Amino acid sequence: MTKLILIRITCPSRRVAEDIADAALEQRLAACANLEGPVSSTYRWKGVIEQSFEFILWLKAPEANWGKVDALVQALHPYDVPAIVAMPLSHVSPAYEAWAIENTES
């Protein structure tokens, strides 16, 4: 197991995803951001099945930064309940992990 987590955030637009990515990197909460999409999303919201196109933002960050990343997303994301989940990483290249940790330390 490594010290890094992979955080997945769905965003309503490329601009929202880019703003969150930029803030996470500027605040050294994440070492890297990747953006995918648009993707088709289907979900239940307030009792109704909804469909929309969203963008997926992936952040690679130290697990210790999870709380700060979550707070950042809550502050910048327009959804009432943003979908933000984190996955532990079982294997990471030692050189990549060292680079990620170095680039998230203040």
Overview of the structural elements:
There is one protein chain. The model has no long low-confidence stretch (mean pLDDT 97). The protein starts with a strand and ends with a helix. Strands 2-3-1-4 form a 4-stranded antiparallel beta sheet. The protein is elongated and about 45 Å long. It has one domain: 2-Layer Sandwich (Alpha-Beta Plaits). The chain is of the alpha+beta class. The protein is built from 3 helices and 4 strands; from the N terminus they run βαββαβα. It has helices at residues 14-26, 66-76, 94-102; strands spanning 4-11, 32-45, 48-62, 84-88. Strand 2 and strand 3 (48-62) form a beta hairpin. Helix 1 (14-26) packs across helix 2.
Strand order of the largest sheet: 2-3-1-4
The profile of the biggest β sheet is: 4 strands, antiparallel
Helix content: 25-40%
Based on CA atoms alone, the radius of gyration comes out at 14 Å
Number of strands: 4
Order of helices and strands: EHEEHEH
Q: What is the residue-averaged pLDDT?
A: 97
Number of helices: 3
Principal-axes geometry comes out as elongated
Find the structural class using helix and strand composition. alpha+beta
State the name of the first-level CATH class.
Alpha Beta
Residues in β-strands, percent: 35-45%
Quote the CATH topology. Answer: Alpha-Beta Plaits
Return residue spans where pLDDT drops below 50 for at least 5 consecutive residues. none
Q: How far apart, in Å, are the first and last alpha carbons?
A: 23 Å
Number of domains: 1
CATH architecture: 2-Layer Sandwich
